[in-house]
Structures are given as structure tokens and as C-alpha cells.
Amino acid sequence: MRLEKRLSLWLSASFLAPAAFAQSTGCVPMTSQQLIIYRAGSLTRAFNPLVTKFTCATGIQVKDNPMGSVDAARQITAGGKPCDLYAPADYLDIDLLLKPAGYAGFNIVFAQGRMVLLYSASSLAEKKLPPLVASGSPRFGPPASVPNAVENWYEVLTMPGVVIGGGHPYLDPGAYRLDLIFQLAADYYKKPLLHNNLLQHVTIPGPVRAALGKQIDFQFIYEHNARAMAAENPDIRYVNLPPKIGMSDPDMDGWYGQHAWIVLPGLGSPGAARTVTIPAARVAWGITILKNAPNHAAAVRFLELLLGPDGAAVLQANGPLPISPAMISSSDYKQLPKALLPLVRQKPASKP
Asked: Which fold has domain 115-247?
């Protein structure tokens, strides 16, 4: 076969390949359209399959950027990074960071969870630390069966040599919730110095991730992430904290905010406040379309998937747990794209 003919056949096959692949997989051909998402790393297990499903159904290519939610907010505001959808691990980051600075007009609260205390069973035994499981609690068998923490769990965490893994609170809600937990615990147990005593045992690992049971002894993390870690490693255990500490009760938002808060540097963008106070609130994830979203229509289509039955099923399987229908405030409801109105319900006022 002559070289020119072989080249012609190869080029034809190359141009036909995306369509042929789409037909063989049931996916539509890829388009030049894009969707840019900046979202919490804690959504990775849910968003990975959702992004794949979305691209398969629409042909829209997704640039999915997982990172600390506060860091993401600064990247797309002060950093000027183009973004269509912003999904933080703390829904209040939309209300208190993006909205006042003029970057977002609504906040959809679509998933919820809790903070749990994670540890290595073998490390606990090796260090001869007291047990963390409360007497009479069910055996560890997540997600249906998770024991409660002993009443004096904080005394175990403040014993000499104990190390609690943390992160930078100015970048990530998972990190600043550690400080909020310590404040809530100090109030709940009526021990004014407990917040400081617990903070003295916190370390923020460097570039190399610290291993639980080796460099660090305990972590406070989202329950769905703890459950995934325990499924991969039978040595991993976790216990539930009291609802007033684990920020798991939606009816206690008012109480959480009255007893714990953290002050963060602002976004650093023109018009943004220099500092922002984030009150403690139940653990819930929010999502919004940026006002200057370059791919607004694609963002609406992704939200239709996320907030619909397919999105709820993926969240149920991977965590965090879906809020279905998702919730939105009455004022934000008026700014929502019409296609999304049937997929949400207006949120009742928080109880004190």
C-alpha cells in the first residue's frame, strides 16, 4: 500500500475514533465544551463517578480541581482562576466568603455528614493508651454500627506523647473544624483550658502525608472518609463524638454557632473583607455557580445530575450523605436557574 493511502486511512480512522468509541460505550462524542469545578477534596469519591457519567452523557469535558475549600475560594477570586462550580466542605464558605465579595448569588446545601475521631487499634495498644470505645457501645461495623467515644476521650488525647494530626485552618474546613471541635468540647465538658490543651497536641504534617498509627495517633475527619479508610485497612477504627461536638445535628446549627467560631483572613480580592468569622455549623457541603462562570449552561446541566436521583445514589454509596431534595434559603431560591427549581426545597430557619 502506498504511503499516501496509508496516511489517508490513518487520518480517517483518527477522526472517526471518538465517535466510534462513543458508540461502543454508549457515550456521546466529545465536544469542545468545558466545565470547570473547584471543590472540596472530601467530595472526590462521589464526584469522580459523577464527572465520568456527566461527560459520557453530554460530551462536555470537565476540569475537576479538588483542594481545600478556603484555598479554592481564594484561587477563583484573588487568583482570578476561571470557575463554573464551587463546592466547599463547609456550606458557610459560600455565604460568608463568596457572596459578600460578589462572586456568588445562591448556595445549595446538598450533602451532610459528621466529624468522627479516627485512630489505629494497634497503635492504641502499643502505646498502652486507655480504650476509646464507651462501655455498652455496639461493635465496630460501619456504617450501620459505629461505637460512641468514652466520656473522657479528651483525656486520652491530652496524655503525654500523643499526637493529633491536623491541617492548616486558613486553607481547609476539615482543618478549621478541628479547632471548632476543641472549642465545643471545652464548652460541653465545662473545662475552659481544654481547647488550649488539645491544640498543644496538634501537628500539621509537611509535604509528606503523616501515617496514622506512626507519625500521628489520632485524627478528626469526616465520617465517610473514615469509613473508606477502615474498609481498606482493618486496623483503622473510629468512634462517634457527642452530637454537640461532632457537628452532626442540623437542628443545632444555632447552638454550634453560639459556642465556637474561627476568624480567617479574607479572600484578598478587591472589595472583600480583610477577615471573616466562620461560626461552627453542622457538617454540610454546599455548591454554587459563580456569577462570572464561563460555562454557565454546562454548570446547570451538572447540577441537574448532582441534585437528581443519580447524584443522590452516588452520594449515598460514596458519601457524604445526600440531602434530597437539596436545601436553599428563600432569598437564594429566587436567584436559582429555573431548571434547578424542581430539584431543591426552601430551607427552614435554623433553631437556636
From this structure: D-Maltodextrin-Binding Protein; domain 2 (3.40.190)
